[in-house]
Fold these 2 entries.
Entry 1:
Amino acid sequence: MKKQDVVITGIGLVSSLGEGPDAHWDVLSQPGTKPVVDEATFAPYPVHPLPALSLDKQIPKKGDQRQMEPWQRLGTYAAGLAIDQAGARDLVSDMHLIVAAGGGERDIAVDEAVATALCTTPTEEAGPILNEKLGTELRPTLFLAQLSNLLAGNISIVHGVTGSSRTFMGEEAAAADAVRIAAARLSEGRGGIALVGGAYASQRWDLALLYGSGNALWRGPFAPVSARDGDGGFVGGALGAFLVLETEEHAASRGATALAKLSGVATDAAHNRPNPSAAAAKALWQKLGAPVGSLGVLSGMTGVPDARAAEEEFLAGFGDAAIRRTGTLLGHGVEATFPANVALGALALSRGGFYPAMDPADAGTGAVERILVTGFGQWRGEALALLERAA
Amino acid sequence: MKDHLGRPLVAVTGIGIVTPLGWGREESWAALKAGKSGISRIRRFAVDKLRTTIAGTVELPEEAEGAPPVSAAVRVERMAEAAVTEALAQAKLGTAGAFPGPLMLGMPPVELEWPQRFELARQANGSGAYPAITQVATGRRDIYETFMFGGVGERLAACFGTTGAPIALTTACATGASAIQMAVEAIQRGESDAAIALGTDGSVQPEAVIRFSLLSALTARNDAPEKASRPFEKSRDGFVMSEGAAALILESLEHATARGAEVLGIIAGCGERADSFHRTRSNPDGHAIIGAMRNAITDAGLEPADIGYVNAHGTSTPENDKMETLGMRAVFGDAPPPISSNKSMIGHTLSAAGALEAAFSLLTIRDQVLPPTINHDEPDPTVMLDVVPNVARPVSGLKHVLSNSFGFGGQNVCLVVSAAP
């Protein structure tokens, strides 16, 4: 099978800094940008909140909006932005879709009330009461807002994307493999155009419970990724990030502008940290086979200590490459972070520039010809993507 | 060794199965051929106040001895481990803890369940408020690693020593078929000579049962559990939730032949088509279902007339079985091949269904026996299909089986399973 080159023709990006390529370029290409942080609402966990969205622009039917909660709305919205930038509205019926998904929203009020009411009741007495409460208090449609594959389902319904639909689960690694496999399928001739990405709604207590249980969340006043001492942790960032990928030929034949070439994506699971993880990433870098000169790095570093140590060991091999820890300004968006950084990479290459330092530890200022995106998962997973200027 | 598109043929050399009918391939298959139901009253938790009180369940050995029920996350992983172990024993590929290929894991989304919430609330002095339980949960690595979506795949990948990153995926009720498709694609693209494809689900817990009930998806024929799942039958009124796992060891035919492995069959074609009509219903014109079936047959380089039997999605909901009938007639015309639903016996194993049904399709070809659709008491006049009613049917010369999987969210995946060449 002849491998075809894959290019990025659309990015859909929503973060606490705003929405769309222009807003992100304007803010991130200026030195000294400050993150948007809410330290109070989910204290002791700071979060980067979701910006106001004009939902009607991407999800015109109110009925569709009502069937979703913030996570699915954010993802569906960002997916629409990507399709729009690619000018691919008329190509959706044969567009392939891979979404990296977490769990959808729960009914927080019901969860709290039921747990408080029944936690000390003996199991045999609590069971029937639990059944009755859940049966009467859960909204039927909330199940659909909760189901992981229904972000993809909503993208199919709202935007008409029906070539194929797959949903990967598994935090950061799921997103990297989603991009890898979406690109590989195009490259080997399984379709001409694909949509891939994820979303993270940071303002959710159920996610604080899950990630907090692993000590993976930063507590206290905001600090940049490199300065999160002690237990470390990530600051959740509202993030919706989708990419429209096409074979170079498919894009060229319809006159679409390629923002960047996606030259390679490589992933692994080392099962251990920090050293095996760093070694795995070094092997992935060898596999990508790119020169180290004129390299810009967009790091998905979370601030979780073992992951950060593994990545710092890996990055130490890159000499004077320009390294940017995007998590300091965008926060960490779990399934959305890898596609978001690929999107930022494509944006920079399309504008012929790169970003100034985002984190106090960011170094390197040279000209950037190609961009490496890193994705060390908060717990597991090593992933790299290489972007180059479109021909 | 190559298919009609020049891609490596993908062979199955190991099959592992766990169902409510038994922990093991041959035990489950023998019961299925005998038309035995695995559906029973739920004993795992109190069913008072539930509309539906029946399901297919798989108990872990320690639960059978009286230990408290485990969470779905744990059940999913344990059944998966058993299925992969059985499949590997048959395939004899790789060494212990070192499998030469990736893991494609179809599984349900998992999350903290009520026993965990109650425990945390007790520790938080009786408060179930999120800030309070989040605080007491801090540092509970057991909760974190159990309920993160990547946890099950991470542990299975480490246990069996699969290569690269494990991929966990969900396409609702088509999940198991999607996992097989992902593994087939990885081998076809030359990413690996072999792969493990797995579908596993163990979601019979109160909240999941209630949520499916609230969507009016489940039957409430609680009085006769074994009669409740009646796909394609006139009085069908919903599906029965169930649990199980199936693992397939896949490798390129060339790789399997070179090492002298017994080839159990070929995954000859995969087809998919998403639907944009509705979150829980198919477009009434059936185009996505029809498209997925046709795509799978075309992908296998076959014509509809080559398909000798269809392993139905056949959930026993009025809607699915009506749409599947429409799809059958559209794809196969006036003389569709026989079709039967494993779900009439084992219920709807959700994320595992596509993998289990592909596994049973392989065994159908091996033994040249079509498993029945049980509980077929009164035919539905609108279902003009041979559903292999009630009793298994010996056949001869069966080479190609189409296995259908259709899910919520417009997910449709079909596989063509073929005899070894």
Entry 2:
Amino acid sequence: MITYFFRRLVLMVPTLIGITLLTFMLIRLAPGLGAMGGEHGRALSVQEQNARKSLYGLDKPPLTAYAIWLGHLLRGDFGDSSADHRPVLDKIGERLPLTLFLNGSSLLLTFAIAVPLGICSALRRGKLIDHSISIFLLVLYCIPTFVAALALIMIVAGGDYLNLLPMYGVASFDAETLSLPGRIVDYLLHMLLPITCLTYLGLASLTRYSRLSLLDVLARDFVRTARAKGLNDQAVVFRHALRNALMPLITLLALEIPGLIGGSIIIEQLFTLPGTGHLVIQSINNRDTNVIMAITTLTAILTLLSYLAADMLYALSDPRVRLQ
Amino acid sequence: MKIPYLLLFGLILVSAGCSRNESHSIPVASSPADDERVPVPGDWITYYIDTEPDTLNPVLAQLSISNTIAQYISEPLVQRDPQTFALSPWLAASWEISPDKLIYTFHLRRDVKWDDGAPFTAEDVKFTMDKLLDPKTVTFLQGYFQTIKSYSVLDPYTIRFFATKPYYRLLESFNDILIIPEHAFVKGGDFNSDPFNRHPIGTGPYRFVRWVTGSQVVLERRDDYWGAKAYPKRLLFQLVEQPSTALQLLKKGELDVMDGIAPLRYQRELLGSASMARLNTCVYTQPNLTWLGFNLRRPLFSDVRVRHAIDLLLPRAEMQKMAGGPEFNPLCTGSEMPGTPRYNSAVLPTPLDPVLAGQLLDQAGWKLSPRDGYRYRDGKRLAFTLAYETGGLNAMEVLMQEALQKAGIALSLDGMDGPRLNDELNHWNYDAYFWGWVSDLDDDPFTLWHSSQAVIPGSANCVGYQSREADRLIEQAQVEFDADKRNALYRQLNQVVHDDYPACFLFTGSTIMLVSKRLENVQISQIGYEPFLAQVYIPLSKQKHRDP
């Protein structure tokens, strides 16, 4: 298995080069790169344009520019942002904690809610409660996030109806006048609506997964054996069936990890949360090549690693799986 | 913790709303401090911004929002009077211009200090110019100073500039550039990425406190400011990405000032709502014009009759209504703002006249085909593509498409994002475009309409307009230092350009700003660019924030 691990690790290198090359070419070939920031109405002279092109390496052919970018990357240098000349890693670093917190807590929350619901559904298969859960989650699943977010903002946080919760940002703008516990409560209150919006959408599919997975296991022979030998229902379900049923979910969890840093663009935008998703949109609008490349590369690395982790976890949790 | 606080917040707003009426009916024997008409210092103002500033270094600023904030920290040598628009002394106490208009000598104020205590001197002005004109500096301001040959510091409070030729706008340019302190920058470091750019030091009424990325920029009043001290203790520039979210915040009372509200949004979502009782409306016009520009390099548009015909076909009235109506978006006939002395009111907006348009197109050889209802010449259909920026409704483009189609012109729509549209215009890679043009007050139309600019890719004259008559007027105006005579020349230019139809001039934009009624003495000039927040005050009874 260790050889397998290292072979997969080595194979990641060409994949990564492929991903970054493709992204780099897409950005370079996309129109609008020559405009480079600024607002319409302030024209640049030819000399100024050329100076800027050479500053950002746009005067070089795309492949050469990619090679230069890759060279810097190997030295751990993601370059500077063209929007404000700050190191790209600084810009990502200051935004990552928020996105990790948001997506991490919503991921945990999704699992914490969906798995019990799935178990409940599976154990009462075909009953009223099973159908109610299914229909309720399906309805939630059908509401687009931006609709839910805007509706929540308007109803519980806006100035027109209930004015209970903060609706934007990570802290009240006068948070510095609050005490430390006050600030923590303030922060959590600000996170309430975004996390709700990020969580509800994932509930439906995960509940169905865990329901199906448990039903699948409950139909197996060993469950019948367990029941036949007289074990009570609780022990059968929770000690024997559930463990096996949760295994596929581990893989699902691992596959969700890259999404943690990618950020949720819509929610961050709607609630004005300064996370990485927010930065992605800003950088695309500014044609900020280095920032886009850095976020893509980091997400790609994390995706590849988590796929590998999912496979390894699968092998670890199921002795029948052999990795060659 | 937060909920009771918010409830309290709501109560304060309600009582503030009442106290105004009560103060009229119940005479209160109050101390002067309670009198709402006496300006008092204190409290914070929250100001909505929709984009993150790129830098707070005014030399590098590429976004106008950066300047909006930076102008409270940094100051220019000369300042425009918000009422008369005349240039008046600021960091420069006085200046002399030689009779041949080639030498400008500025005498600086001696009582100005940077907010870190260091004195402000001519070396700082020189440093600002050095950095501004350095080819390595990424700035949009170099174009303003192309006529400067050299400059030298005569003594710590005097600096002299030498120009290559007389140019009326040179003095004006010293209003565009805010002075930065030499001592605050890393010696020999990279100017574009200097730490100063996120932690500026200035001479202005406010000092920089902090910049929380993606969230807010906080400034604090300087008690040692050399000029009239500001009233609000703090200015908080709050970033809100979504205008709809910002509007809710405004209704909640968390934002004090929201600028840049589109007239349509104002009419639909604000007028008549209960929250308007807490808000004052300010409308000001920005030199912001919308037009449909032709690429004159295309053979189709080399015929002025075709351009004129298209101009006659555009449904101006409906488009104007869509933008916000005549009240907010007056029609215009050129690149100047209606109502300014440079605008020629004798030039009338083109009326809707499909009959005349049809005759012009017939004369130009484009005949209606009974087969499909389009016009053809030599077997070629009269068709072109309109490039425009997507976002919003984009209903005006469709309206134009329908109007032209009725007259037998096939208009294809090509929507794109801002950076791409900019790029396509810079490379003349378009047939026609529909976009706005933002200019400065008293701007020089040289880059926009002069023939020499038509051959430079990336210049503002992207339509490729060339006219001897226009060139003559532009060149004459550049050396005309008498504002009235210069304005007369620009009025002539207005007529000349309009009659050549390089573009179909449509309408101007207004900006609506909503201001909480807590704020007193809100004075916005017609163009609305000046740092007006410093002179706004909040009566004691309406103050909300204690100092941290």
